[in-house]
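My current task is to audit a protein record that another person submitted. Alongside the sequence sits a line of tokens, each denoting a local backbone shape. Please read both lines and tell me whether the tokens look consistent with the sequence. Do not assume that whoever made the record got everything right. Thanks in advance; the entry in question is below.
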Amino acid sequence: MAPTTLARIGAQSVARAPASLAHAGFGDHGPHVVLLHGIPGSRASFERVATALGQHCRVLVPDLLGFGDSPDAPAGAHAQLHAETVSRWLQDCGVERLHLVGFDFGGPTAILLAARLRGRVQSLTLAATNLFPDTPVPLPLRVAKVPGLGALCFRLALGRLGLLAMWRAAVADRAAFPLSRYRAMLRDNCVRSTRRIFYASMRDLPGLYGEIARTAQTLQLPAAVLWGDRDPFFPLAVGERTARTLGAPLHVLTGCGHFVPEERPAEMARVIAALVERAAPG
């Protein structure tokens, strides 16, 4: 295991492994649970979920490349490279067996990571994510394919102001996930990385997500899927399709928008904990 530098932040331990990922750890006993955040986001997105799980599990929450305190991602980085990076980071951390959780962009990353670690991942929980190359793209977002104009439009639409507007559109339970908490995530690297990933996805959804969909169909893992019934980005039909693909139950969260870990942390922690217990060997 590579040496790490530890710092204390409240009840968390924050570790920075050389040439690896910044991450927070919760709990000191039980099975390992790894939580992968979405975009925009950081390890802070899962703080309340991880705190609850940390009572019975050893929870690790990395900042993906380009987010939080992790190094920037190389140009063109998408789910495959993020999965490779998390895989190397887990090796650095000495984690052999784990339960994997992915929210939003953390979902496709988790699918590809589970395939890389086949036999080591004991369960998979996904929330408010997309795994499919044929998910409908709203007409305004199709501008991404227009050379020059697409990049300019996405730079304007997914700048800091655009991402602040996203909160208003995407969050149904604003008491649970207030604007002040969301705003704190929008560091410069988060804004930049969110725009790059989203732009790349809209330019080539079939090319980037074809492998993800095919891989998801091959996974044979205990799984669970969580979805807000007021998610404006991915309607329940996408959640139902995700659950069918994984052979998993779908947990519909009433009055919840897109940001499941922030809007329904207690419910999410309960679903993960129950799946971890059910998937435990023996």
Remarks:
- The beta strands are 5-9, 12-16, 22-26, 32-36, 58-62, 98-103, 121-127, 223-228, 250-253.
- The chain has one domain: 5-135+206-279.
